[in-house]
Amino acid sequence: MAQVSIERKENRFVQELLSPSDKLLLSSTRDFVDEQIMPVRRELDESTRSDYGLVEETLKKMLPLGLQGGFLPEEYGGMGLSSALTTALLAEEMGRGDAALFTSLMGGILAMRPAIKTDNREVLEHFAPRFVQEDELCLGCFAATEPQGGSDIENADLMGSGITCAAALRDGQWVMDGTKVWSVNAGLAGAYCVVASTDQSLGDEGIALVYVEVPTQGFTFLGFEDKEGLRGSRQGGFELKGVRVPEGWRAAGPGWDAELLWDNQAFARIVSAGLAIGMAQGTLDEVLAFTTDRIAAGKPIRQHTVCATMLADIAMGIQAGRDNYVNAAYLYDRPEVYGDGASVHMLSRASAAKVFCCDAAINVTNRAMELMGSYGYVTDYYVEKYWRDAKTLQLWEGGAQLSRLDVVRGYYDFDQFHRNELYERIREIS
Ligand SMILES: Cc1cc2nc3c(=O)[nH]c(=O)nc-3n(C[C@H](O)[C@H](O)[C@H](O)COP(=O)(O)OP(=O)(O)OC[C@H]3O[C@@H](n4cnc5c(N)ncnc54)[C@H](O)[C@@H]3O)c2cc1C
User: Fold this and answer.
1) The domain 261-409: what is its CATH number?
2) Is there a cis peptide before residue 215, judged by omega within 30 degrees of 0?
3) N or C end of the chain: which has fewer CB within 10 A?
4) Which fold has domain 140-256?
């Protein structure tokens, strides 16, 4: 049995869908992962328990690859990278190394995408130059989640009614008030895209994506979360109190901003699916190596039939997950044929990929740990890290349940507010 699947090594399945520059980016990212991340994965994780020194050093080394600035249009010094497929494949490569590093850069990508998609020149001209510089690390932050919950903001059926962060237009400036939590790079980023509401009663028309530059008066950082996994990326909260930004820093306008929000959600879920499969693939590589050398009852663990069938389950989960996210990304990249990123159909496909791949990664890391016995649980190997990291992915972007509701919406007119006469009658009686 090959140590590493040929499919992953050569990405044969998708080669013909990629441009020459995307192929080059993928192969240089893979080389970076093999040479600069795999040998120091443990040190990277340990760095998060002290000063994050190695994490920041590695993120800086990644800048010339273009994994963050590359998403900006060429006229702003980027590479015009917009393909969900390429992004998800990059995420898979990075997920195999250390998913947290890519998560940190995704903060900037998700923050800048609304401005890129609408060609908001005022925002791009102001913020883009920092993201394309290669000597200094500039992080971005896409801030949606609030203390009362993330799902009520990400739930498209609630049409922004769950957003309490307020954006009010006064004297040609947006005045921002509210609290955000759990946002990647909060407290570290220079550029924030804040999900706010101009008026909760306006539905989608009231949703506003407003850019904030930090430091600025009225911005207070509230601290980082202390997480079990994905430790190399930091999530935190912040408060906005009367923060003022130029009027042109709203991504687009009423109605449009909501579409950008739902579109970002679909895109992020496809990328998360790639990240999850990267972790699962890294786990398979680990467990194949371990079960070759480890002998039980006179033969390598992987030569025991029951263990071989577990390895088959692991391999099938990875392969089905990869096919799933590649398929969803292919559809996302062709909005003229399959509908745009904000459509119910696309969110359904993207969510299906995310749910399936995150569940697969959790299952794969669990099974691999069993195959490695107690060694699966110790820090001498990496399966315990993949296991910790994989669980986190399931919990973000609306969690496991809201994502499933988004899946089902693509199949029938699921209505979570549905009431029938019998229900109403019983409620009245009780
Ligand atoms: C590592 C990490 C990184 C993150 N990065 C960011 C970031 O960059 N920016 C950002 O804004 N947020 C970020 N988040 C927050 C994340 O998006 C939210 O945690 C997520 O949306 C869920 O919100 P919640 O935790 O408040 O759970 P809740 O909204 O309280 O939901 C709890 C559970 O209820 C389920 N649920 C919710 N609504 C329904 C419903 N209508 N029907 C059935 N079930 C439902 C959910 O699926 C979930 O299982 C991050 C979280 C993590 C863990």
Assistant:
1) 1.20.140.10
2) yes
3) C
4) Butyryl-CoA Dehydrogenase, subunit A; domain 2 (2.40.110)
CA of 401 relative to ligand 1 center, distance in Å: 9
pLDDT tens profile 7-39: 555 566 688 899 999 999 999 999 999 999 999
**pTM, entire model:** 0.96
Quick: pLDDT tens for 318-330. Answer: 999 999 999 999 9
pLDDT tens, 347-365? 999 999 999 999 999 999 9
Rg (CA), the chain: 22
- pLDDT of 5 higher than 90: no
Extract the tokens encoding 24: 């080059």
List ligand 1's pocket residues with C-beta within 6 A: 107, 142-145, 149-151, 154-155, 182-184, 230, 235, 392, 395-402, 405, 416
Residue 12 confidence (pLDDT): 65
Reduced to 3 states, what is the DSSP secondary structure of residue 348? helix
Residue of 41, 28, 58, 24 lying closest to 96 (CA atoms): 41
- Class level of CATH domain 6-132: mainly alpha
Are 256 and 341 a contacting pair, CB within 8 Å? no
Pocket residue to mutate for ligand 1, from 151, 240, 408, most atoms within 8 A of Cβ: 151
Picking from 287, 277, 278, 279, the residue whose alpha carbon sits closest to that of residue 308 is: 287
What pLDDT sits at residue 323?
94
Name which residue sits closest to atom 6 of ligand 1, judged by CA.
Answer: 183
Q: In the chain, what is the straight-line distance between the N-terminal and C-terminal CA atoms, in Å?
A: 64
Q: Where are the domains of the chain?
A: 6-132, 140-256, 261-409
- The type of residue at 349 is R
Instruction: Give the span between the Cα atoms of 398 and 361, in whole angstroms.
Output: 18
